[in-house]
Amino acid sequence: MRTMWRQRCWGGTVAVVPLGERVVWARFLPPLELHIALLIPDFPLETVKARAVLPSAVPYADAVFNLGRVALLVAALATGQIHCLKVAMQDRLHQPYRQQLMPWLPKVFDAALQAGALGVHLSGAGPTVAAWCDDRQAAETVAQAMWQSLKDEGLNGTWRVVGLDAHGATVIQRS
Checking DSSP bridges between strand 4-8 and strand 170-174, what pairing results, if any? Predict the structure, then answer.
């Protein structure tokens, strides 16, 4: 006998905070016209290695800096004030430390912003870079600029452009 189950994850922006055995979450939809240019270097960066360069403690001023930017990021995405993304995506907690593993990162960030990205950040532990843009055409221009910057550093990679998803993923398993 075959059984089927379906699990659906919500799209948009979902903030989740663990609270003991449960989680507290909130969801909203950012402006769906936004697109993200992804630069995907052809070389891996192990998360364990990327975590190893992080300090065990951070300066209070850096923590405050990032907390303010997180609040600005949420507000900008929730209200559609996308002009705030450049500042909202600034970071002092992980990107400066991980840059020692990716010395090409500042040049790629600069290329993205010069090409018209609204904001740019390291995706997770890296090495993928994500640049937010106000439409698909702008994202393609930004992706190509990031790719060229990486190539100028003697490195290879690929790029792609993705849109935001209001519905989220659906997983269907048949057995």
Answer: antiparallel
